[in-house]
């Protein structure tokens, strides 16, 4: 592959605030028409093959390896991002009425949604798509929020955007974007291939064509401070957003806004309070306790912003602590064993953003928490810390054989993030290559690939050869 064409500062800032960017995979040869023709053949002879669309039509990988597309992924997710195993080819047939607004689930199952994105989705069009063909529609800027006015598009007041484009258009979106297939009013089929891509290491420096150290992209005021926090996080500069703390009535008004009111107001207050040079941490933690009790029943509910109940949106007070970062560590550790499971879970998620040996020790102690959601959150956060969490590996290894399939999944994914420092997990990961869950098998294989152990590599190769999919074999060509 030729050198990736990286995104610019303006493109990164636009993506952070709006939640999407379009890039074009332009080829001198008819790559997209060939892919379209093969999709037509597969759908006609075999139906929708689900996750196997890539091994069935390997040319799709050429699109994601294109310098502009790979450069966009590198810019947003770092150099060692991965392609997730879940993917789907969506057919929007002529006459369709479209979908309701929704957010997708994460196949690692327990990501808590927050503005600092570690996953993105790619919507690839192998044919020209006009607005009447039912393109994928999104609600720009609403990825920051759990809710919208109504998931019924006839009642939604937020402004929708149909992502149109010519063949080879790849729409890269924040994973938490509200989206839907728009009605296909034409007489032409619309195919869209949806793939997921994942960051494997926390950002320590910009990985795009970085030229400026400041934020100057215009956007709605409620999201400005959140966007600035994401910008600084992506640059590896967690302290750049600090600003002087208000006093008296203004500070109390922000705390009141955090504790009650509509989602947009709480969201704005969380980032305003968290970005202060002397954030009121004790008051934010008090607000977290109150919010946990208020939101306990709705935190894991199935709704358009959390379709299967696996991927809730972070509590607003937890978001404020995320923005504060390491400055809140002492008080987080003092509160970590709160009686309420949602407080413990939220703090475990926050600790994943504070790469510190004390965070590793605290999260390790939560691996045996009485609440399964807390245990999973602790595992996810340890993985997020990468090699810093090496000391936790012996405690994570038993989780690879946990009776809970979701725990096995997040444990294997975390081992993959920890990478070469997870060499003590090789035996447990080898056993997972025969797991009953397809994604567990993938994450176990990914971890073995990232651990420099010859025996583990050989077992992985043997497993891959057994599972090899032939892209030529089909109903018309069985031998």
Keywords:
alpha+beta; Jelly Rolls; single chain; 19 helices; 9% strand; 8 strands; globular; 3-stranded antiparallel sheet; 479 residues
Short summary of the structure?
By secondary structure, this protein is α+β, with helices and mostly antiparallel strands. Helix content is 42%, strand content 9%.
Which class of the domain at 9-148 and 157-198 in CATH terms?
A: Mainly Beta
Strand order in the sheet with the most strands: 1-6-3-8-2
CATH homologous superfamily designation of the domain at 9-148 and 157-198: q2cbj1_9rhob like domain
- Given helix and strand content, the structural type is alpha+beta
The profile of the biggest β sheet is: 5 strands, antiparallel
| Uncertain segments | none
- In one word, what is the shape? globular
Terminal Cα span: 32 Å
Give me the oligomer status.
Answer: single chain
